[in-house]
Amino acid sequence: MNKRLLITLTAAVLLGGVAVGYTALSGATPDGAAQSVPAGAGPRLMVLSNGKLSTVSRTDPAGSREVTEQRCDRVYSAAGTISCLRPAGALKASELAVLDSDLKELKTVPLTGFPNRTRVSASGRMVAWTLFVDGHSYAANGFSTSTGILDTKTGTLVTSLEEFAVEGMPQRPVDTNYWGVTFTADDNRFYATMSTGGHRYLLEGDFAARKVRPLTDADDVECPSLSPDGTRIAYKKAVGGDPQKGWRVSVLDLASRRITELAETRSVDDQPAWVDDRTVAYGIQRDDGLNDVWAVPADGTGTPAVLVPEASSPAPIS
Fold first, then answer.
1. What is the dihedral of CA 3, 7, 12, 14, to 10 degrees?
2. What angle do CA 204, 177, 10 make, to 5 degrees?
């Protein structure tokens, strides 16, 4: 990974040149597509509209939309903490910006790579991110990722999960990649995806102990997202175990290990987000390059429906 990171650092000045094309992939819409109107009181959803941080009412997510000037490639929010992976600039690589609910910048972390995933723990304390540092797709051969975690309370920063020991492996394999962190309620344990030796595992991590444990009875669990009640994980699962065939959004019951494939049959290359304990949301790109946020029941019933048109990166907020 160090060699690949060195190559990426050398190419960092090129990131600005490709940022426009990447923004289209991350859910951008044409300028002026979303009009800024107060979303009203009550529960809301945070999304990206044309790369701008926005909020909509959870009771009327396709209705009025409050659009800010804060730009992100990926965003997530919880308990007043906002994690914003900012677009690459012409003279610098990407960065993580941690904001409060008033969009005041609390901390920035310089990064190198293409913004891909981010999550905030339910308490707002822990922030995680994933970037592509080589290759731009989980279906590509030879892709590599960089995944880190920040404890906003103590300031402890782990720039790469590759620093953690892997339980059951005396020596960390050289081909490991990590992505898609989701936190438990205690702000210490987390789940993520680890790939090695051609296999993709769900792993459980311990932030304080600096170790991770692959769950060998849960293969092909990618981009996990823990339900609000902590009992299930929504994720994308490679069709037939082959990412080239696309991904099926599914839910894993952590106690029984029972897998439920959701009613969405299209390929979903996203980290699902729980709107509530019954509903899973995710982004799907249209043929015209725009993204919509879709939602589907978490129990396998129902029919997928557009939740927020021309938007991406959904996160429920109060």
1. -160
2. 140
- Decide: residue 42, CB within 10 A, 0-12 exposed, 13-18 middle, 19+ buried: exposed
Strand partners of residue 74: 85
Question: What's this model's pTM, rounded to 2 decimal places?
Answer: 0.86
What is each CA distance from 284 to 64, 202, 260, in whole angstroms? 21, 23, 20
- Cα separation, 267 vs 276, in Å, equals 22
Average pLDDT, integer, range 166-179 = 83
CB 281 within 8 A of CB 314: yes
Q: What was the pLDDT predicted at 169?
A: 79
Q: Give the DSSP per-residue string, 15-74.
A: HHHHHHHHHHHTT---TTSS-B----SSSEEEEEETTEEEEEESSSTTS-EEEEEEE-SE
Q: Which of 236, 234, 226, 171 is nearest to 204 (CA)?
A: 226
Residue 10 in 3-state DSSP? helix
Confidence of residue 28 (pLDDT cuts 50, 70, 90): very low
Tokens 């009613």 belong to which residue?
Answer: 263
Give the list of residues 6+ apart from residue 191 with CB closer than 8 angstroms, or none: 181, 182, 184, 202, 203, 204, 205, 224, 226, 233
Q: Which H helix or E strand runs over 237?
A: strand 232-238
Q: How far apart are the first and last CA of the chain?
A: 39
